[in-house]
Amino acid sequence: MSAVRWTAAVAAARAAGRPVVALESSVLAQGLPVPANREAERRMRDAVIAGGAVPAVTAVVQGVPTLGLEGEALERFLARDGVAKVSARDLPVSMAQGRDGATTVAAALTLAAQGGLDVFATGGIGGVHRDAPFDESADLAELARTSVVTVCAGAKSILDLPATLERLETLGVTVVGFGTDEFPGFFTARTGLRVPARVDAPEEVARILLAARALGRPGGVLVVQPPPPDAALDATLVDEAVREALRIAAAAGVRGPAVTPHLLAAVERATGGRSLAANLALLEANAGLAARIAVALATAP
Ligand code: PSU
Ligand code: MN
Fold first, then answer.
1. Is 24 an active-site residue?
2. Fewer C-beta within 10 Å: the chain N or C terminus?
3. 178-192, 208-222, 241-255 — which is least confidently predicted?
4. Among 24, 41, 182, 284, the one annotated catalytic
5. Domains and CATH numbers, the chain
6. Using a 6 Å cutoff on CB, does residue 24 contact ligand 1?
């Protein structure tokens, strides 16, 4: 028996063979500030529905791995009331201790796969952090061993993007640009880093996942798309904001899982909130594309 619990809406969708898109909850409970996190949840959910699929926010709810965070539990996550950031390694502990846990990309992928879901959307994946001490997100290892399509706007600009792409290559993660030849920079459309392949239609992504499965490969497909043009930020602005954020984090001695939320908050302050608007817009766009891919998979020959 699966350890995962589905909400009624997600269970009904699965039973009817309708496409479902998994979403993460760490972006809601740690990544975005209150009340923008509520807007993010609503816009992602609406975008998935508009794209023809059913949304399932992943989370550990009082120890139960859940697909479809809603109601009172969702309110606790949005209020960040005693909700821990949970990566893949932390899942068994939150379960055994009966706690609330907001899932990172790594943990969300684990729950999505466990629930038989094929497609997952997020803002940006974790990756290799800049400078010492060594810090590489567990998202990369999980992308390499979970047969799920992940849609994102690249890795966060706070990271070392060339190193992150190199690690994805080493780990054997299939990376495709959706409508782009470049690895996007999350807030920015362009980084000058090329992706190994480009696709322009959801059906192509579906065929790539099915090909990976036909080979028995354990990993999924990482689909990167640039942020919507009207929301994208200027690269110089982002660069300066990130450098400032890194200085603050180093001075404050921030380490481990606290690094990512700390840097995201500092970038938001340094860009006067413009990074927040971009973040919401790209989360919505990624959720919409994920829905179209899930629909393509549900109808794939
Ligand atoms: N990107 C964002 N906001 C976020 C995250 C990424 O714009 O909140 C979260 C995701 O949940 C991602 C996690 O999986 O940060 C990575 O954290 P770490 O670097 O500690 O693995
Ligand atoms: Mn880390």
1. yes
2. N
3. 241-255
4. 24
5. 5-298 (3.40.1790.10)
6. yes
Question: pLDDT digit string (tens) for 83-112?
Answer: 999 999 999 999 999 999 999 999 999 999
Mutate which of 24, 26, 222, 263 for ligand 1 pocket (most atoms within 8 A of beta carbon): 26
Please give the distance, rounded to the nearest whole angstrom, from the Cα atom of residue 97 to the centre of ligand 2: 23
The overall pTM is greater than 0.85? yes
For this structure, is 85 an active site residue? no
Is 225 a pocket residue for ligand 1 (Cβ < 6 Å)? no
Q: What Cα–Cα distance (Å) separates residue 294 from each residue in 50, 118, 174, 204, 288?
A: 12, 7, 18, 12, 10
End-to-end CA distance of the chain: 29
- Of all residues in the chain, the percent with pLDDT exceeding 70 is 99
Ligand 2 midpoint to CA 7 (Å) = 31
**Selected catalytic residue, list 85, 142, 156, 268:** 156
- C-beta pairs of 3-6 under 8 Å, 24+ apart in sequence: 3/65, 3/95, 3/114, 4/65, 4/66, 4/67, 4/111, 4/114, 4/115, 5/61, 5/64, 5/65, 5/66, 5/67, 6/56, 6/66, 6/67, 6/68, 6/115
Ligand 1 near 27 CB (within 6 A): yes
What integer is the mean pLDDT of 129-140? 90
Phi/psi at 58 (nearest 5 deg)?
Answer: -90, 145
Instruction: Using the predicted structure, report yes or no on whether residue 1 has a pLDDT greater than 80.
Output: no
